[in-house]
Design brief:
Elements lengths: L16 E5 L6 H8 L1 H8 L3 E2 L8 H11 L5 H21 L2 E6 L7 H10 L5 E6 L2 H14 L4 E6 L2 H6 L8 E6 L9 H14 L5 E7 L4 H7 L6 H16 L9 E8 L4 E8 L3 E5 L4 E5 L4 E8 L3 H10 L3 E7 L5 E7 L1
Parallel strand pairs: 1-5, 2-12, 3-4, 3-6, 4-5, 6-7
Antiparallel strand pairs: 7-14, 8-9, 9-12, 10-11, 13-14
This protein binds N,N-dimethyl-L-histidine (AVI).
The site of N,N-dimethyl-L-histidine has 11 residues, from strand 12.
Amino acid sequence: MSHPPDQGVAQPLEKRLQIEHLISPSNPLATELTAGKDVVDGLGQAPKSLPPHYFYDDRGSQLFEQICGLPEYYLTRTETAILQQYAAAIAQITGPCELVELGSGSAVKTRILLDAYASLEQPLHYMPIDVSAGILESSARNLLVDYPTLQVHGLVSTYELALAKLEPAQLPTRMICFLGSSLGNLTPAACEVFFAQVKAALKPGEYFLLGFDLQKSPDILEAAYDDSRGVTAEFNLNMLHHLNWRFQGDFDVSQFQHVAFYNESLHQIEIYLKSLRSQTVHLRSLNLALEFAAGETIHTEISRKFNLASMQQDLQAKGLNPIQAWTDAKQWFGLVLCQV
Ligand code: AVI
C-alpha cells in the first residue's frame, strides 16, 4: 500500500475522525425501518415483495463480502481493475477533492482513489455515508491508521438524508462516488429521483463518479447471481433469518428456495424466494400471519444492467454531464465521471 506524502505533523487519529448520526431512533425514517412498515406493505401485496435493505444484517453483510470475492461475481474485481487503471487520471482531472462515498461499506475501493490523490500530494478528505454505524466506524478507523493525514467525516445515514444535508466541501471541489453498481438495485423511477438528489447536492463544477454493471450474456449474469457454491442463495435466504430475529418470525428457511434469472426485456436480474410448499408464517411483533401457496414467490431484489452510451445520455439529461467514461477490455462494467 502506498502512503500519502508527509503534509506536516500528523494529528492523532481521534482528531481526524468525526462521525455524525443522521439516523437515530428519534428520526421518523429510522422508526419506520425498525417498525417494519415496509415489511407489512411488501408482504401484504400480491405478488409479495421485500425491500432489499433487509439483506444487510451482520450475517448478510458478511455474505455480501463473500459474494464480492466469488469467481462468478465478476462485478467487484472488474470495477476494481478499472479503478486501478484510471484512478490517477480521475485525480488529475478533479484536482484536490473531497471524496463522498454513498454506501461506503468496507471502503476497499476507496483506497485506490485515496492512493491516487495521495500520490499527487493532494490533501485527503473522505466522507463515507452508510446506514451501518459499525461498518462505517471500523472501516474509517482502518483508513485513518493507513493514511496518517486523512480526515474522515462519516455520516451514518441513508443516501437521501445525507445528500439533502451535505455542507459545502472543505477542499476546492467534491466528488460524490456511487460504486459497485448499487444503482442497479434501484427501480428506474427511484434512479431518476436519486440522480436529481445527487445533482442538487453538488455545486457547479463538482463531480459525480458512477460505477455500474453493463448488459452481457444471460449465462454470465445468471451465474453471477446463482453461484455454484450457493453463497448468493444463502444471502437471499438470510433475509428470512433476519425477519425471524427482528420481528419474532417463524419462517422455516429450509422451505424456501433462492431463484435468480435474467429478464432480458427489462435488462435486469430478478431475485426471488420461492415457497416450496403451502405454509403459514407469522411475524409476531408485526401482528402478521402470512399464507404462502406452494411455488409462490417473494420478490427480494432487482439488479439492473445498463448500456454505457445510454447511461451517459441519461446522466447528461439530468445535468450530470459525463466528461470521461471507462470500461474494461470485455466491456463488462462501466465507470463514468460526471461534472455538474
Ligand atoms: C449491492 N448490489 C450492487 C449487488 C448486485 O449485484 O446487485 C447485490 C447482490 N445481490 C445478489 N448478489 C449481489
